[in-house]
Design goal:
Layout: H1 6-11, H2 13-17, H3 23-35, H4 37-70, H5 75-106
The structure holds zinc ion.
Length: about 130
């Protein structure tokens, strides 16, 4: 029986994860993982990556199914038309922003101005809120 080296163990981790090893090989590999921190770390990383990939696959499938239910076949052309309209509107907004930027860049700096009206207008006595009744 060949010795279970780290290289041999790590080469078989994916097969262990996929349950493709014989029972005997699986038991030997698990025994090595129980004793070898380095291989155990590889195993944990592999298992975590696999778990994440499976979660994405499930989630992606659910999202796509939700999208398919959201868009009935007849709605598709309407949706595309709406997107084209939104794209055109966005181009208009961009053109407007560009024009405003040009205008702003061409405008000379204005001197700071005092407000022409006093901030707190003095009311005549009959309108004053402070009058004594
Ligand atoms: Zn090892």
């Amino acid at each position: 029986m060949s010795e279970m080296t780290c290289a041999r163990a790590q080469a078989r981790l994916t097969a262990l994860l996929d349950a493709e090893l014989t029972e005997r090989m699986s038991a030997r590999l698990r025994a090595h993982l129980a004793e070898c921190a380095d291989c155990k770390r590889h195993w944990n990383e592999l298992a975590a990556a696999r778990e994440m990939a499976q979660a994405w696959t499930v989630e992606g499938g659910e999202v796509w199914e939700a999208v398919r239910q959201e868009i009935a076949p007849g709605d598709f052309s309407a949706l595309m038309a709406e997107m084209a309209a939104l794209r055109a509107a966005l181009q208009d907004v961009r053109a407007e922003v560009a024009a405003l930027r040009r205008e702003l860049a061409a405008r000379p700096a204005e001197p700071a101005r005092r407000p022409s009206a006093p901030l707190f207008p003095v009311l005549p006595p009959e309108q004053s809120l402070l009058r004594i009744v």
